[in-house]
Structures are given as structure tokens and as C-alpha cells.
Design goal:
Layout lengths: L5 E6 L2 E6 L11 H16 L5 E6 L10 H5 L9 H10 L3 H7 L5 E5 L2 E3 L1 H7 L3 E5 L3 E3 L13 H9 L1 H10 L2 E3 H7 L4 E3 L4 H13 L3 H16 L2 H15 L3 H12 L9
Parallel strand pairs: 2-3, 3-4, 4-6, 5-7, 6-9
Antiparallel strand pairs: 1-2, 7-8
Length: 267
């Protein structure tokens, strides 16, 4: 494509994925955008040279969420009989939370502008969020008489806790970058022109670690969300036993003793 809907750049073990439909504010409801984003995420997951991923949008928005014009179209699948509409969610936007949740590498949302509806949920699906001072967040589904159909509620409850998630969900209000920081939605707020620089700085710290250890640590955090303590401890013990046998672990020990920086190879 001469103008791909999703851009993927990989360098220095950092993958940068950019939603690239700025004229329409990067909506994720269309099948073409969803397919392009899923393809990029699959490439990130399959590349052993990637240790961390940044997800952002082409200015001026991060992601406008669903396409309201499409929803209002009487020929849209969302206006047809309920089973077909439900299947359209399963086959469409609901594949994104599955793909992002199953990524073995940490994910950073660099929120460059408004993140609305499914766009807000997309940020919640990432492990960490950094906001431009132009960023805004809105869980606006109830304003349109619908609910978050993309697993947004599942992620928001885990990221923010019940009370804050309830406030945003039931009010449908917009939150600016400063309030998002106060609520714990984002790690930090930076000037717009420094957003990607700061996101890459954070990503570089992760990329400097042992690639295998990073991926296993991400897997362990996923386990922690759904396991009780005894099962989680068994999982942690098994993973740790494997990590002790890696070349990167031996290199880290040697570097510590020799007072130098380790050189990790991913083995």
C-alpha cells in the first residue's frame, strides 16, 4: 500500500506501531484498520529481536474509536440482527484485546491526542501509558447508548480499580492529560513534541534487559492476573528454574562481579 493504515518500525529491539489514518482520526472499527493492526502485532510477536513495543497514533489523534457514521448506516452489520452484530464484534475489534494481551513483550501506549471509546480502551490494553499534554481520554460508550464491546471494562477495572473505572464508564466524560495522571491512567505527561522521545527512552530501558527475561516476566504478570497464590508460586518457580539456565543470566552474574554492563544475546 502507498499509504498503509498501520506503520511498523523496528530498531534497537524497539517496535513502534503507528495508527496511520489521521484524516479520520485513526478509527479502529473498520475491518481494514483492524486487519492491518493485527498484522503488525503478529509481526512484533513473532520477531525475537523485539523486546518492547510502542503504540501511538498519527497526529492529531491517538484513536477516535469506532466510526459513528458506520454505526448509523442502516446497511452496517451493527444495525442488522443481533447474532450477526455479535459475531462482527468477535471477528473484528475483539481480536485486538486478545492480540495485545497475548503479546510476550511489554507495551507502551504513547498517547499523542484524543483516545476515545475503543481508542481509550486500546490504551488500557497496553501495559503502560505516557501522555502528551494534548491527550484526552473518554470511555464514551454510554453517551451513544451502547456499552464497551471490546473488553475495555475488563482492562479498565484492572488498571484503575472499580471506583475510577465506574466513574469513567457511567459518566462518559472526557479526561484531560493532567487528570489522567492524577487518576493513575498514565505514568507521566510530557510536552507533545517530546512524547515519542520519552516513550523511546522508557522503551530503551526495557530493551537493555535480557530479551528472554523480559518476555518471561511479562508472561508471569499475565499469570498473576488470573491465578491464585499457590498456583502462581508454582508457575514462578518453574519459570525461574528455566531462567537460571540461560546464557543471559550467566552473563549478568559475570558483569555484576566484573563491575561492567552486561551484553545480552537472548540466549
Amino acid at each position: 500500500m502507498s499509504n498503509p493504515l498501520v506503520l511498523l518500525d523496528i530498531s534497537d529491539r524497539i517496535a513502534t506501531v503507528t495508527l496511520n489514518d489521521p484524516a479520520r482520526r485513526n478509527p479502529v472499527s473498520g475491518t481494514a484498520m483492524i486487519a492491518a493492526l493485527l498484522e503488525a502485532l503478529a509481526k512484533v510477536q513473532a520477531d525475537p529481536e523485539v523486546s518492547v513495543m510502542i503504540l501511538t497514533g498519527a497526529d492529531p489523534a491517538f484513536c477516535a474509536g469506532g466510526d459513528i457514521k458506520e454505526m448509523s448506516d442502516p446497511e452496517s452489520v451493527f444495525r442488522k440482527e443481533p447474532l450477526a452484530a455479535a459475531q462482527a464484534y468477535v471477528d473484528g475489534v475483539q481480536r485486538l484485546p486478545q492480540a495485545l494481551y497475548n503479546l510476550d513483550v511489554p507495551t507502551i501506549a504513547a498517547v499523542n491526542g484524543p483516545a476515545v471509546g475503543a481508542g481509550c480502551d486500546l490504551t488500557m490494553m497496553c501495559d503502560m501509558r505516557i501522555a502528551s499534554d494534548r491527550a484526552k481520554f473518554g470511555e464514551v460508550f454510554l453517551n451513544l447508548g451502547i456499552i464497551p464491546g471490546d473488553a475495555g471494562s475488563w482492562f479498565m477495572l484492572r488498571r484503575l480499580g472499580h471506583q475510577k473505572a465506574a466513574d469513567l464508564t457511567f459518566s462518559g466524560r472526557m479526561v484531560d492529560a493532567a487528570e489522567a495522571l492524577e487518576m493513575g491512567m498514565v505514568l507521566e505527561v510530557v510536552a507533545h513534541d517530546r512524547l515519542m522521545e520519552r516513550a523511546r527512552e522508557r522503551a530503551a530501558v526495557i530493551a537493555s534487559k535480557s530479551p528472554r527475561a523480559v518476555r518471561v516476566a511479562k508472561r508471569l504478570m499475565r499469570n498473576a492476573e488470573r491465578m491464585d497464590l499457590p498456583d502462581f508460586l508454582n508457575s514462578a518457580a518453574a519459570y525461574q528454574a528455566l531462567m537460571h539456565q540461560t546464557e543471559d543470566h550467566r552473563e549478568a552474574l559475570a558483569a555484576f562481579i566484573e563491575k561492567r554492563k552486561p551484553v545480552f544475546t537472548g540466549r
